[in-house]
Known about the structure:
The protein is mainly beta.
Amino acid sequence: xxxxxxxxxxxxxxLCCSAMAQDYxxxxxxxxxxxxxxxxxxxxxxxxxxxxxxxxLFSWTGELTAGDFKLSNRAGDWYPCFNAPTENxxxxxxxEHRLVYHETAGDADxxxxxxxxxxxxxxADLKRLTLSVVRAEMPDELWITGSSVPGGSAKLSNLPPxxxxxxxxxxxxxxxxxxxxAMAGDGTEYLVPVAEYVDITGTTDCMATTDVSLPGWEVWVxxxxxxxxxxxxxxxxxxxxxxxxxMLYMVGGAVETGWSANLAxxxxxxxxxxxxxxxxxxxxxRPQYEEPDRFKILGQLDWDPYSLHxxxxxxxxxxxxxxxxxxxxxxxxxxxxKQGRYVITVNTLYETxxxxxxxxxxxxxxxEAVPGWFVALSxxxxxxxxxxxxxxxxxxxxxxxDGRLLQSAYGAGTDFVLGEQLPAGVYILKVGSGxxxxxQRVLVK
Length: 445
C-alpha cells in the first residue's frame, strides 16, 4: 500500500508540474497599448532571439500607444500569461522589470503601463522572467548591396509604416544583403538572414548586425523584375519575382454597385504600362449601402485572393499615397465635402495610388471635365455614341465588366457604333477628344 501511495503521489506531482510548465518556444504581446488592443485572437507574436539553458529571449518592435499591456504564452488565449508584479506598474525605459507567470486566471492580473506613444522594442526572457522596454530607432534609408545587384548597390524606396522599405528591380545570380548607409562605415548595420544558404525568394527572418563578414541571401534564379519588401522593425524580408496583375476592380459603399464583389467596377489598364490601372468614376456617400462612404480595391470579381487597402482605416482621398496588398481589411474613405468624380491611378508594381478629385467646373492636369459631352445608347447588339457641340472623338474603347478590351476606334468622329452582336449586359465605354475624357457605363439590352 505504501508503494502504491508513493507511486500515485509521484504521478500526481508529475502531472501538476507538467500542467504548470512554461512554453519557452513562443510569446505574444497584447493590451490596450498594442495595435490590436485587448483581443486575444490578435495578440502579436514576439520573435525568438536566442534560447539556451538559462535564457529564452523574445523581442517585439512596433508602435505602442500610452496604455497597458502584458504578455501571453499561447496564441489566441488569455492564459498562460506573464504579468507585472504590481498593479499598473509604470514602465521605466531601459530598466529591467520582473515578470510573474500565471497558468490560469487569478486575482493578480496586473499589467505594465506605458506612459507615452512611440516606437518601442519590448524584450522578454521567459526563463529569467524579466522584461525591458526601450525606444526603437528605425533607419531613414536602406540599401541593397551584393554581387546579385546590378551596379553593386541600390537604394530602397520607403514604405509606410516607419522602418519599411521596398526594392523593385533586377537581380542576377549571386548574393545580397541590406545596409543602413550608402557606404560601409563604423556605424553601418547590416540585415542578414538568420539561417545560412537562404534563397531570397519567400519570407525569411533576418537579424541586424555590424559584422560585415556574415553571409547574406543567395539569388538562385535571375530575373529582371524582383520585388523585395523589408520590415526592419520585425526583421522580416519578403521577396519574389514580380508578376503583373490582369485587372483591378473598385468595390464599396461609395461605389455605384455597392459591396457586391461580382459587380465591382473595373479599372482601365494602361496600354503602355501594364502595371498602371485607372478608375474614372463617381465616388460618393451612398446611404443605401453598408459603410456608405468607404471602398477598397479587388484584383478579381471576388473577395480573395488579391485585394488592395490603405495602411490606415479611413484614409481620405486624395491624401492617400500607398496601397497595402492584403492584410487587415482597412478601407479608404470619401471626403463628405468632395463627393463626385475621381480619377484614381494605381501602380501595382510600386504599390502607389494617386487620386484626383475633379469638380464639375474645373480641369485637372489637362483633363477638362465637361459633363454630358457625349451620349451612349444601346443599339442592335452594340453601343451607339453621339458627341455634342461638334466635338469629334479621337479615341473610343469598349470594355467588358471583366476589364477585357472588346473594341477600339480611333478618329471615330461624332456619331459611331462600337461592338457587334454584344450579349445583353453592362459595359464600360471610354471616350476621349483632345483634353476631354469620359467614362460611362452602358446597358446593352
